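for the recovery benchmark. tokens below, seq after
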């Protein structure tokens, strides 16, 4: 059984905040993902590690991972390898559902900082996160996306994380709130900051004390360290809670940037690319000896 999902403080922008869906394995169903993309322009998909263990033997895994095979091979810890392969399997299935192809033909590549993208498919942006037994993949046709997942019971209150990850405005709001809610609020803030940094392509290189969030009742807003608004409405932020897992609950943060260039409703690679270019791209994706990214950059 898949864990249950509950939206929490999702931002409203355009068609609404990002959806939080659950898919219990490669068989889907994937119509919900396509529906979220068509309706909202963005989908955030969660899965559990046991449901996304690659089927078959080494040859099947090698075909599925494509250019990621060498990154997988370079890892020494079994759990790290398991999460890496399962998260790429989830991401490939999400992308395949969106662009009307099969997962083995999705050509994943990585920017210098480790940010994933799909070669030849500029009409979508993707993001990936995983922790413990939970995997999360985000996809959007609106502009850029970042996702992050953290354990809901991660201890942050009363640790150095408060000073390292919060602005003066956020610390003041935390002091005004209920003591029993402090840790949960800190986890929400952390996932939002991770997601926003990923969407920008900065990761942990962006100091979390240089930007903050106002977790208002109507929507989540990006703010400066002093609490004044920091964007003109181009960003949509949301958090959700995944429950029903033996390890406990998880908090998912999402950041989506609307590029303002209009919406692309037909995401299929079969109509977005001419036949010759499509064959060339899919042929390159099937080769396990293609370009290899730095294994240290894996999310």
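predicted aa per position
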């Amino acid at each position: 059984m898949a864990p249950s999902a509950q939206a929490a403080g999702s931002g409203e922008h355009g068609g609404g905040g990002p959806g939080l869906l659950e898919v219990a394995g490669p068989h889907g169903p994937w119509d919900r993902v396509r529906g979220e993309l068509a309706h909202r322009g963005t989908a955030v998909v969660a899965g559990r590690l046991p449901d996304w263990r690659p089927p078959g033997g080494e040859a099947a895994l090698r075909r599925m991972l494509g250019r990621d095979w060498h990154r997988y091979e370079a890892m020494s810890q079994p759990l790290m390898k398991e999460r890496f392969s399962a998260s790429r399997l989830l991401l490939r299935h999400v992308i395949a559902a969106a662009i009307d192809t099969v997962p083995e033909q999705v050509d994943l590549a990585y920017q210098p900082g480790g940010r994933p993208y799909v070669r030849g498919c500029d009409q979508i942006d993707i993001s990936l996160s995983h922790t413990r037994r939970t995997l999360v993949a985000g996809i959007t046709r609106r502009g850029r996306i970042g996702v992050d997942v953290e354990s809901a019971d991660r201890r942050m209150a009363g640790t150095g994380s408060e000073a390292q990850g919060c602005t003066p405005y956020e610390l003041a709001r935390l002091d005004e709130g209920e003591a029993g809610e402090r840790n949960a609020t800190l986890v929400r803030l952390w996932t939002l900051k991770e997601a926003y940094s990923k969407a920008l392509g900065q990761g942990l290189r962006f100091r979390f004390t240089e930007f903050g969030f106002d977790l208002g009742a109507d929507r989540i807003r990006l703010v400066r360290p002093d609490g004044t608004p920091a964007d003109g409405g181009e960003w949509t932020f949301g958090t959700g809670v995944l429950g029903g897992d033996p390890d406990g609950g998880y908090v998912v943060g999402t950041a989506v940037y609307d590029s303002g260039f209009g919406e692309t409703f037909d995401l299929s690679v079969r109509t977005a690319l001419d036949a010759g270019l499509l064959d060339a791209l899919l042929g390159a994706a099937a080769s396990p000896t293609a370009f290899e990214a730095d294994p240290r950059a894996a999310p």
